[in-house]
Amino acid sequence: MVVPKLFRRPAVILLTGLTLLGCAALVSATKDKFTTSDKAFYADDKTVNFVRPGLVVKIISAEIAPDGTAKARVLFTDLRGLPLDRLGIQTPGNVAASFILATIPKGETTYKAYTTRVQTSPITRVAATQAGADAGGTWAQVAEGEYIYTFGAKAPAGYDRTATHTVSVYANRNLTEFDLGINSLDTVFHFVPDGSKVTVVRDIVRTATCNKCHDKLSAHGTGGRTTMETCITCHQPQTTDPDTGNTVDMATMIHRIHTGADLPSVKAGKPYQIIGFAQSVHDFSKVAFPANPRNCEACHEPTSLAVQKDDWLKPSRRACGSCHDDVNFATGENHANLPQVSDNQCSSCHTVQGELEFDISIKGAHTIATKSRELPGTTFAILGVNDGAAGKKPTVTFSVKDKAGNPILPSEMTRLTLLLNGPNTDFGPQISEVALTASGSNGVYFWTFNTPLPETAKGSYTVGIEGYRNITLLKGTTKEQVARDIGVNKSFAFGVTDPTPVPRRTIVTTAKCNACHGSLGLHGGTRNTVEECVMCHNPANTDAARRPATAGPAQSIDFRTMIHKMHSAGANGATFTIWAGSANNYNFGYPGRLTTCTQCHVNGSEQLPLPATNAKVNDPQSHIGLMGPETASCTSCHTSLATAAHAQVNTSAIGESCSTCHGPTSAFAVSKVHAR
Questions:
Q1: Most exposed: 26, 155, 474, 647, by fewest CB within 10 Å?
Q2: Are 51 and 20 in contact (CB under 8 A)?
Q3: Strands (E), 474-573
Q4: What is the tens place of the pLDDT at every residue in 356-379?
Q5: What stretch of H or E contains 462?
Q6: CB-based contact 260:286 (threshold 8 Å)
Q7: pLDDT score for 33
Q8: In sequence order, what DSSP letters do the residues of 170-189 get, joined into one string?
């Protein structure tokens, strides 16, 4: 056929997530180009060369004719750029693709889709127009892997040919018959129908920011909706859920999802739900944001490349009312009795930043007390350990200063604790002592532990420090409050019998935790590094001391067991509760893929075998009870009785044999069974 002389605009390609099942972008389909996170890495060479796993979609160009007929020219290729047959006849795996066509009307900042459907609720009988994928479109192949898609929907009469328009395509390539899963992705193309340059965009939060927690952003199954750029073409004010009446506009929906448990309406007893496809109920009422919900910059990153990254500093009823959903802007209720009929005057009161924190400016109102710029700061350092030998009482030399370098006396601290544990290969019950009476001067202090090291101590041990001062902020004002000025934990390894101290091996890093949690801080914020956490959360520890007898067997709080269970509870059907004065439930699931071990682990620390250890994990609620570290790690996510029995059968008096089948080069290697 004759190829129309349309579609000459240079391609603007957004290749976010063009990967084998969400892995990092690859440039070759040859086996050596895949990583251990890819299923194709483990496939035989013949399969890889035949299938050519992976999917890349490029929107080459798009146009809308004066009568509203819209077309997009797309190219489907594998990771080497070789063309793919979308029907899966000439090349393995059919490619299913769906299209969205939307515009940003002049004077507006959000999309409005031309591709819509009417959804009628069987609950409320209310009909709502929703943005969605095009229906009734046609395909025409113009070259190998290259197609022109003509939309079934048309732009309305009189549509603005000078406004920004966007075509989004989300696609998946089904390779399940080759045990290579479903390759999914999306991409967008921005254009102005009259041929002029695109100057108006909506670019507030980038996908990379979402993926700090979500690993690979993915919604609506395996269809391929994996980027914010595509999500916002449908999730805008045009679209509502007719079953609940809730908007699914991105600004409102995302704020409400991420603060579900903290929403005033939820606390008042009204659940926050969205009813989706096939009347599936999605209840976000128990979602707790892993970072402090006042930390707007967790998503609105100052370092982001997004064009409109600072738009969160422009107040609006739509955005602000999504978290503060007890405010009635029409009546002024919970808004200082001031009705707000438009957004025009919002910034008059809610400036970007005021002179003082905790005011009604945007940054002031979201100030986190422990992060206040008015805090003098608390900084710790451990300078050395003397008498760190078996049977002796170690003396720790440490410093406490403010961020300007001025000394802080131990007695001026509200809490100051030193921890001791070891050996670093086998952490056991910790020694914890309050050091508020430590001797010394000028910022350098000494503490001799009251408890000596065991007579059998050997190898290396670790000392840690934690604490805070209570500081009064805005004293004498109506905003006066007391904040904890918390120091960042420091750890120090010292040799008992080792000539050179050997620190505990690094399994996860605090930086990895903080990618989601913003600023890790547990137990009042004083435990804020992984190195400090593991000293108490060791194999021997459980919540027995704080668990009521009526609450059943104690729960292990060993770090590997506890963290795996916390992050997998809900997703794997299991529940997980720790008692710490009250019941703490962690049944809301992990926002990323549980199979992406490297989201937390570093240095291949998830691989078997684990280093030899004599420490047994005490988990009274498990099927086994007392177990080795490999069994404890794996059965904390894989919770079935069959898995526990399998692990126990493969454990003897001399140790665990898990690595025989699950070692790095074995048939069921950890990396292989978790590959995507």
A1: 474
A2: no
A3: 481-486, 490-495
A4: 999 999 999 999 999 999 999 999
A5: strand 460-473
A6: yes
A7: 67
A8: EEEEE-GGGT--EEEEEEEE
Q: How many residues does the chain have?
A: 676
Cα 352–Cα 357–Cα 362 angle in degrees, nearest 5: 25
Closest CA to 569 of 579, 559, 581, 577: 577
Q: What mean pLDDT value characterizes the chain? A: 92
pTM for the full predicted model: 0.89
Helix axes 207-214, 510-517, angle to 10 degrees: 120
Phi, psi angle pair for 635, to nearest 5°: -80, -5
Nearest Cα residue to 228 out of 208, 201, 255, 253: 208
pLDDT-based confidence at 36, cuts 50/70/90? confident
Residue 15 has pLDDT above 60, yes or no: no
> Is the distance from CB of 400 to CB of 415 less than 8 angstroms?
no
What contacts 24+ positions apart, CB below 8 Å, involve 625-631?
A: 627/651, 628/655, 628/656, 629/539, 629/560, 629/656, 630/656, 630/658, 630/659, 631/656, 631/658
Q: Is the pLDDT of residue 648 over 80?
A: yes
The residue written with tokens 């438009």 in the block is: 342
SS3 assignment, position 526: coil
- CA gap 628, 616 in Å, rounded: 5
User: Rounded to the nearest 5°, which phi and psi values hold at 293?
Assistant: -60, -15
CB burial of residue 443 (10 Å; 0-12, 13-18, 19+) = middle
Collapsing DSSP to helix, strand or coil, 495 comes out as strand
Helix, strand, or coil (residue 262): helix
Long-range contacts of 520-526 (CB under 8 A, 24+ apart): 521/370, 521/486, 524/468, 524/484, 525/370, 525/468, 525/484, 525/486, 526/415, 526/417, 526/466, 526/467, 526/468, 526/484, 526/486, 526/489
- Residues 573 and 315: their CA atoms lie apart, in Å, by 40
Q: In the predicted model, what is the mean pLDDT of residues 436-460?
A: 97
In a 13 Å sphere around the CA of 412, the CA atoms on its Cβ side amount to 15
